[in-house]
Specification:
By secondary structure, the chain is of the alpha/beta class. It folds into two domains: 14-80, Hypothetical PUA domain-like, domain 1 (Ribosomal Protein L25, Chain P, Beta Barrel), CATH 2.40.240; 88-243, Alpha/beta knot (3-Layer(aba) Sandwich), CATH 3.40.1280. The chain has seven helices and 13 strands. Strands 6, 7, 8, 9, 10, 11, 12 and 13 form an eight-stranded parallel β-sheet that branches. It has a five-stranded mixed β-sheet with strand order 1-3-4-5-2. Helix 3 (130-144) links the parallel strand 7 and strand 8.
Length: 251
């Protein structure tokens, strides 16, 4: 007897929706999401779609009604609970468009709780398209099976960030002048944390002094080579996840 195919199939598309999900409700899907389901995935009546809402986990839905440019999805069951999110923030100075898009995407893939752009003296990007950054984070969460989209903060200047820094959160900052071995210190400092990555050219001396004056700050080294800003952000997150995050118990 042939094996029963898995349901829903692995190829089932996933979508993030803003509306809270529950069993039996119907959602109207339009715009780019409808175009993706109808024109790219060729969904038909009864086709399965996975949904997540950032609150209640992942749900299974099916196409109930198809219109010319929209469709109705009916939620048919709960697949899994919302994932546990490691309490790590990524704080990064904005960099050129394609590179900051990459950082936002990989931050979402790697499992950050919050992504916060930070304006420093050597930051060369004056304006950020937060809608575009969030779109990249949503797409990464959809493609990677996440049930959470990280929080995205508006740009904040470094002095203001440090002035309002929460007491119980460790601030690791990548200091090009050297610091502690990150994997070692991250494993020793459990609890809420954040990683601060500077701009192209790094922090200036006054900023570095200001950061080091914060009691919760820990200067770290990311190795013997000079890394581009986007590489430093991705490498630092990977190190933290392996040392203090949810990669430690992965088989």
């Amino acid at each position: 007897m042939p094996a029963t195919p898995a349901w829903p199939p692995q190829s089932t598309p996933r979508l993030f929706v803003e509306s809270p999900l529950a069993d039996g409700i119907e959602l109207s899907i339009s715009g780019p999401q409808a175009h993706y389901l109808l024109s790219v995935m060729r969904m038909k009546i009864g086709s399965p779609v996975k949904l997540f809402d950032n609150i209640s986990g992942e749900w299974l839905a099916e196409v109930a009604i198809i219109g010319k440019r929209d469709l109705i999805l009916r939620v048919t069951g709960h697949l899994r609970e919302r994932e546990a999110v490691p309490d790590i923030w990524l704080l990064a100075a904005p960099i050129k468009k394609a590179r900051i898009d990459l950082v936002a995407e990989k931050a979402s893939e790697l499992g950050v709780a919050r992504y916060q752009p930070v304006i420093t003296r050597r930051t060369v990007i004056e304006r950020l398209n937060l809608d575009r950054l969030r779109s990249h984070m949503v797409e990464a969460a959809e493609q990677c099976g996440r049930t959470v989209v990280p929080d995205l903060g508006g740009p904040v200047k470094l002095p203001a960030l440090l002035r309002d820094w929460p007491t119980g959160r460790t601030l690791y900052f990548a200091d090009e002048n050297g610091g502690e071995v990150f994997a070692r210190v991250a494993a020793a400092h459990q609890g809420p944390a954040a990683i601060l990555i500077g701009p192209e050219g790094g922090f200036d001396d006054e900023e570095r002094t200001l950061i080091r004056a914060l009691p919760q700050s820990v200067p770290i080294s990311l190795g013997p080579r000079i890394l581009r800003a986007e590489t430093a952000a991705i490498a630092a997150l990977a190190i933290w996840m392996a040392s203090a995050g949810d990669w430690r118990d992965v088989q």
